[in-house]
Request: fold
Amino acid sequence: MKKYLLFLIMLIFSYSIFSAHYVEVENVTSTNVTLRVTPYYDAIVNPKVYIYGPTGFVRAKNIKDDLYEFEDGLYKWVIPIIFGKNKFGQTVTGVLPHPIVDIYQYRKNINIKVITDPENLSLTVKVNTDYEVISGEIDKNRMILIKTDEGYILYTNKQRKNCQNTLKIKVKVSKEKIKEISFNLFTLNGFTTYLRGDFTPYVVEKITTHVVKKGETLWEIAKKYKVRTADLQIINNLDEPDKIYAGMKLDIGTVQFTEGLTSVVVNLATSRLAVYYAKKLVKVFPVAIGRSDSMPPGIYWILDKQIDPALYWFGEYIPPRSPINGLGTRFLQLSNPTYGIHGTTKPWEIGRRISHGCVRMFNKDVEVLDAFVNLGSPVFVIKSFESFPEKLSDIPEFKEFKSQTEQIKEKIKEG
Reply:
């Protein structure tokens, strides 16, 4: 142990003398740290970079030019130990500007809330972070930056392009380092939200805790406790439900959503689907619906969203994008597992009563729906020969929905 400490002291001392490599943090993710190592000499080969951290030594991998990456152990600090060779064949070492690299300052969270004003379509982005925000832009258009007691606000009244948008926020990480963070947004007819939506607020009614046994699937566990697989995915933050493992603890319960920004209305009488944002009509799409109104009118919620879904038909697996996979390119699972909203491989059937109960859309339309609406958005299934109202609150079913969400909010207040 004394030898290691003496070795480190000598290295740190040597850094202050030679200082032959400029080291800066390029990127920090949940799994890796990337350093940029710039030699202050004519290097004949890429330097070898070793990292000393709280758990010992690791070697950083040279991934491209002067970029080096190593697996992140959630370190707060690391000491880079670098050996290079100059054109004379001499070994060169040393680090600038500091022998100890502070990783913690790159781990500060930055959370945003994206809100479109339904009246004038201006965009407000609320930024909550410990970083100092320098600037913000969307699609290369600079936004107005306002500092508040609660954080920062970015604002623009400029029109955004339809489809995907890129929000870039520059923050000051240290005196020497400015970091740019990108967020993917999506705009539909002037209304901007997160790409693939945000999470609608929800409350969890917990039943118990389950320890996964060898060979168990999430579907089997959900069936055992009479809950939906989507409930377990949301409660346990399972991005990949197939990757549960023996010994893993899962919270078992059900999810109840409250009121969010996006809503969907399906009209069985006209074979049309409408999207609303902040209770204001955004866009109407043609759809195919079930034979004999097989999806009952009522209120449902979007519990899961899948890109390029596989189809399981009477025990047969049909792969994504197969010509006989009738789900098309997207699948939005509703709170009643029998029903969903999805694409199609038979676009000529849109507008007809042809499905087994689900709502079918053109693939290009369901991709827009998937990109725009929030997980947990309510889906109102109605039967009316009138046009969709401009305000969501004008449909009779909204009163029932409002009553349900108020009850859920009361549960949240009660804890």
The helical segments are 2-18, 218-225, 229-235, 363-372, 397-414. The longest strand covers residues 178-188. The chain has four domains: 2-106, 110-194, 202-257, 262-404. The domain at 2-106 is CATH 2.60.40.3760 (Immunoglobulin-like).
